[in-house]
Write a structure and sequence with these properties.
The protein is α/β, with parallel strands linked by helices and 205 residues long. The chain has helices at residues 21-24, 36-43, 49-53, 72-85, 94-102, 138-143, 171-174, 180-185; strands spanning 6-9, 28-29, 45-48, 61-65, 89-93, 116-120, 133-137, 150-155, 163-169, 191-196. It has one domain. The protein has eight helices and ten strands. The longest helix is centred in the middle third of the chain and has 14 residues, at 72-85.
Length: 205
């Protein structure tokens, strides 16, 4: 990761206008600790900038070849696996390495119907941030692509810094039927914004 220069970055595509990336961190909140700094950290991917600027066609991975053994700790197992499966090399998706570091007894992952696989809460190929990668069903994984994660109602008067006055997680977070912290933890890392000049007016149910 040091060699390939991974950075903590936010995708502009996951913030709805009029809110911009540079404005997010400065938001105040009446619902502490859920202010702009919280949501900036919540949204930030750990990713190579080129993958954020232009999404790769498939999930980035590493290829381990028997004749180029760069990682001694996997050399013996790699050779045994390749011999057993008549393979020359082994490909590993990088977010599966993240999952392995979090879940030592990682189950068999598959993209088949009814199976479980690695899922990006940020819907961003190439992200390896531990808080953005989980194991869930393929159906839920695919459904995340069509939902915003959280709706923020922001009170703003004139040129003042906006203040978050209401937070509503969308479908995936609310399914947990738990506290706001856990709902945000499992929500898609996307934000939709409603601007209000009247601080106490609820614009949605």
């Amino acid at each position: 990761m040091k060699q390939l220069k991974y950075e903590r970055l936010i995708s502009d595509e996951h913030l709805s206008p009029p809110l911009r990336n540079g404005q997010l961190k400065g938001l105040k909140s009446i619902l502490l600790p859920y202010n702009g700094s919280f949501f900036a950290e919540w949204m930030s991917c750990e990713i190579r900038k080129k993958h954020l600027d232009k999404a790769p066609c498939q999930r980035p991975g590493l290829t381990f070849q028997q004749n180029i053994l760069l990682i001694p700790s996997v050399t013996k197992k790699l050779i045994e696996f390749c011999d057993l499966n008549s393979a020359e090399d082994v490909g590993v998706q990088i977010h599966h390495i993240t999952l392995r570091s979090m879940v030592p007894s990682l189950p068999l992952l598959s993209s088949g119907k009814g199976s479980e696989g690695g899922s990006h809460l940020c819907d961003t190929y190439g992200c390896v941030w531990k808080q953005h990668v989980i194991i869930e069903s393929e159906e839920i994984n695919q459904s995340r692509q069509t939902y915003f994660g959280v709706l923020l109602q922001i009170h703003q008067s004139g040129s003042d810094v906006g203040c978050i006055v209401k937070i509503k997680p969308y479908l995936h977070g609310r399914k947990l039927n738990t506290n706001l912290h856990d709902q945000l933890k499992y929500s898609c890392r996307k934000i939709q914004v409603v601007i209000s000049e009247h601080e106490h007016v609820e614009l949605y149910k």
